[in-house]
Amino acid sequence: VKFVIPSPGLHLAINACAAAAVATLFGVSLAQVGISLSNFSPVQMRSELLVSRSGIKIVNDAYNANPISTRAAIDLLKDIACNVVQCKWRKWSM
């Protein structure tokens, strides 16, 4: 079953795999797991991808930050793809 989680980050993919494993143990089909995880919506300010009017990409991960979530946000920032032809921006973390 192929599906896309509409939120970035390896940590969320790992959590989705764990949720899928538990769901199948309880008899939920993988197709239904895929549908459910595709509808995942994170809490506001948790790995929230925003784009400003001028096209600046912002990852807002400020909600209840702790060392583990901060590390995940930094890893996400490192992994954000940059089109080499259009890449004239810097990555900042606050």
From TrEMBL:
Keyword terms of this UniProt record: ATP-binding, Ligase, Membrane, Nucleotide-binding, Transmembrane, Transmembrane helix
InterPro entries attached to this UniProt entry: Mur-like_cat_sf, Mur_ligase_C_dom_sf, MurCDEF_CellWall_CoF430Synth
Keyword Membrane on entry: yes
Signal peptide bounds: none
An annotated Gene Ontology molecular function: acid-amino acid ligase activity
Keyword hit for ATP-binding: yes
Spans traversing the lipid bilayer: 12-37
Protein name: Uncharacterized protein
Organism, as annotated: Citrus sinensis
